[in-house]
Amino acid sequence: MSNARFKARKPENEVVLSYEKDSAERISLKAKLSELKQQQLEIPLIIGGKEIYTGNIQKCVVPHNKNHVLATYHMAGEKEVKAAIEAALEAKKEWVKMPWHHRASIFLKAAELLAGPWRMTLNAATMLGQSKTAYQAEIDSACELIDFLRFNVYFMSEIYNEQIISTNESWNRIEYRPLEGFVFAVTPFNFTAIGGNLSIAPALMGNTVLWKPAGTSIYSNYFIMKLLQEAGLPDGVINFVPGAGNLIGNVVFNNECFGGIHFTGSTEVFNSMWKIIGENIDKYKSYPRIVGETGGKDFVFAHKDADVNRLVTALIRGAFEYQGQKCSAASRAYIPESLWPAVKYKLMGEAATIRVGDVEDFTNFMGAVIDKNSFDRIKGYIDYAHNSHEAEIIFGGNCDDSAGYFIEPTIIVAQNPYFKTMTEEIFGPVLTIYVYADDKLEETLRICNESTPYGLTGSIFSQNRRALVEMENMLDYAAGNLYINDKPTGAVVGQQPFGGGRASGTNDKAGSKLNLLRWVSPRVIKETFDPSDNYKYAFME
Ligand SMILES: NC(=O)c1ccc[n+]([C@@H]2O[C@H](COP(=O)([O-])OP(=O)(O)OC[C@H]3O[C@@H](n4cnc5c(N)ncnc54)[C@H](O)[C@@H]3O)[C@@H](O)[C@H]2O)c1
Ligand SMILES: N[C@@H](CCC=O)C(=O)O
Predict the structure, then answer these.
(1) Which of 169, 299, 362, 506 is the most exposed, fewest CB within 10 Å of its CB?
(2) Largest alpha-carbon pair distance within the chain?
(3) Do the bridges between strand 238-240 and strand 209-212 make them parallel or antiparallel, or are there none, so unpaired?
(4) How far apart are CA 313 and CA 488, in angstroms?
(5) Which residues line ligand 1 (CB under 6 A)?
C-alpha cells in the first residue's frame, strides 16, 4: 500500500452555460425535456443498493402543468426506515475503512458525470419537477451540485492535512473520524443541489446516511441517487428513503445510533425536530450533531445614495427569480423617500416586462410555485395585503391555479414596517416595500435588524462608503450572508459559503470546511517515546 500523502487540487467553479438561442446546450436540453416528458418513471426506495417497492404510491407532477404526471414514487413505512438504518450501519463498516482518496474519487467522478453526460438529465428533471427556468436549473442542479462535489473534496483534503504539534518526546496525531452511528439528511424541495449535498457532505467524511428527500423534489433527487450509483458509491452509504417526514423522523429519532441530522427546510420543522431530539437525548450513544439551515426574511436596504438601476435589478432578480422560492429571496425592502419616485417608476416598468409561464418557453422569467399548499399559502398573504388598509398592492397580485400554480410577481407597499408581509417568511414571488423618511436612516436600520426572527441574507445599497460602513455595522447579525450593491441571492460555493444565524439556522455554512467539520468526531492520539517510570515530580525531592 502506498504511504504517500495525497492532496486534492483546488477546483474552480463550474462555468454556467448560457442556453442562448441555437446553442448546443439549448438543443440538448430541449431534447432531454421531451424525452423525460414522454416517460413515466416508477421511483423506488433505494436501501442498501436494492430497489424497494412498497406499493404506497404518490405522484410527481409538473407544477406549471399540474395534470402531467412525471413519475410515481413509493413511500417508506416504519419497516423500510428501520431497514435503511440497518443498511447504513452495515455499510459503515466497510466505508470507514476505505482510504479517503478513494472516497474522494467516487465524488469527483460524480462531478465529472454531472458536468458531462448527466447535466441535461438533472437540469431537465429540475425544470419539470420543480418548475425552474433553464438558467435557474443550470445554476442549481448542474453548477452548484458540481461545485459542492469538487470543493468538498478539496476541503476534506485540507482538513485531513491539518495536524497538531508534536515534540521530541511525544508524537501527537489528530484523526478525523466520522461520527458514530448514522446521519439523517432531510432535504428541501427548492434546490436540487441542496438535496444532494446534505447527504454527500457527511458521506464524503466517512459517514453513512439515510436521505429523506422532500416529496416535491423526488423526481430530480432520484436522478442524483442514480448518478451517485453510476459513480461507484457503494451500496448502503446513502439510502434513498422518500416518505412522510414525521413517520421517518419518529423511527430515526428513537434509534440509539442516530448520530446527527443534516437538515435544510423551514424553521418550524427544524424546531420540532430539535425538541424531539432533546426529549430523546438519553437514548443516544453520542450527542447527535444538529445542523440545520432554515427560513429567512431577507432584506434589501437602500440608502439615499444608491444607484437606482442596479437597485431595481437586484429587487427584481432577488425577489422573483425561481418565484421567490429561495431561502435567500429578497422579500422586504427599505427605500428612502427621496429615491422612491425613481425606484417606483423603474420597478413598475421592469416588472411589467416579466413573463410568467411554462419554463420550457425560454422567454419566461418565472414558472409556477411548487404545489397547491404553497399556492394557497402565498395567495393568503396577497389576500391579506389586499384587504388591509395598512398596505397597497402596487403590482401583480393575481393567482391562477387552473393549469399550474401560477402567481404573478407581486409588489406591496406597506405603511407599517411591522406589517405581516414585511416580517413573515412567504416563500413566494411577493416583495413588500417600506418607504422611510431620509432622516430616519438609523431608526429604520434598527427596525430592519429587529423586526423578524431571522438572520439569513440581506443587501445594502449605497455609493457612499461611510453609509455602507454604518449599515454593515448596524445589521451585524441581521444576515449570515450580506451583500453590498448586489442581490441577496445566488451564493456560489467556495466564494460565499452559505448560511445564517438566529431563526435561520445553525450557520454551518454549506459548501465550506466549517460544514464538513460537523461530520467528524476527531480523535487525538499521543504516543510518548520515553514515559516516566516514577510518579514523583522533581520538586518533591
Ligand atoms: N437556509 C437555507 O440554506 C435554506 C435553503 C433552502 C430552503 N430553506 C428553507 O426551506 C423552506 C422551504 O423548503 P420546504 O418547503 O421543503 O421545507 P419544509 O420544512 O416543509 O420541508 C423540509 C424537509 O423536511 C421534511 N419534513 C417536514 N416535516 C417533517 C417532520 N415532522 N419530520 C421530519 N421531516 C419533516 C420535508 O418532507 C422535507 O423533506 C423555507 O423555509 C426556506 O427558507 C432554507
Ligand atoms: N444558496 C442559495 C439559496 C438556498 C436557499 O434556498 C442562494 O444563495 O440563493
Answers:
(1) 169
(2) 92
(3) parallel
(4) 11
(5) 186-191, 194, 212, 214-215, 245-246, 249, 264-266, 269, 272-273, 293-296, 327, 425, 427, 456, 498-499, 504-505
| Complex-level ipTM | 0.98
Is 489 close to ligand 2, i.e. is its CB under 6 Å away?
A: yes
pLDDT of the residue at 2: 66
Same domain, yes or no: 409 and 280: no
Let me know if 9 is exposed, middle or buried by CB neighbors in 10 A (0-12, 13-18, 19+).
exposed
User: How many C-alpha atoms does 165 have within 13 Å on its Cβ side?
Assistant: 1
Q: Tell me whether residue 477 is in a domain.
A: yes
Classify residue 423 by its DSSP letter: H
Query: Which of 328, 504, 512 is the best mutation target for the ligand 2 pocket, counting ligand atoms within 8 Å of the beta carbon and taking the most?
Result: 328
What pLDDT is stored for residue 1 in this prediction? 60
What are the strands, taking DSSP E only, across 313-385? 330-336
d(CA 300, CA 461) in angstroms, rounded, equals 8
pLDDT at 3: 76
Q: Can you give the pLDDT at residue 5?
A: 80
User: What confidence score (pLDDT) does residue 223 get?
Assistant: 98
Who's near 78: CB < 8 A, 6+ residues apart? 247, 251
Residue 302: its H or E element: strand 298-302
- Residue 79 makes CB contacts below 8 A (sequence gap 6+) with none
Separation of 135 CA from ligand 2 center, angstroms?
Answer: 14
CA of 310 to the centre of ligand 1 (A): 32
Domain assignment present for residue 24? The answer is: no
Mean per-residue pLDDT pooled into runs of 10, the chain (541 residues): 82 98 98 97 98 98 98 98 98 97 98 98 98 98 98 97 96 98 98 98 98 98 98 98 98 98 98 98 98 98 98 98 98 98 98 98 98 98 98 98 98 98 98 98 98 98 98 98 98 98 98 97 98 94 83
**332 shares its domain with 460:** yes
Q: Is residue 446 part of a domain?
A: yes
SS (H, E, C) 473-527: HHCCCCCCEEEECCCCCCCCCCCCCECCEECCECCCCECCHHHHHCCEEEEEEEE
Beta pairing partners, 300? 333, 459
- Cα dist from 157 to 63, 136, 165, 250, whole Å: 40, 30, 19, 35
In three-state secondary structure terms, 65 is: strand
92: left (phi over 0), alpha (psi -120 to 50) or beta: alpha
Catalytic annotation, pick one of 14, 80, 138, 293: 293
Torsion of CA 87, 236, 277, 426, to 10 degrees: -140
Q: Which one of 484, 514, 533 terminates a domain?
A: 484
Task: Please tell me whether residue 245 adopts helix, strand or coil conformation.
Answer: helix
- State how far the Cα of 297 lies from the Cα of 425, in Å rounded to an integer: 5
Domain span including residue 377: 298-484
Statement to judge: residues 366 and 382 lie in one domain: yes
Query: What pTM was estimated for this model as a whole?
Result: 0.98
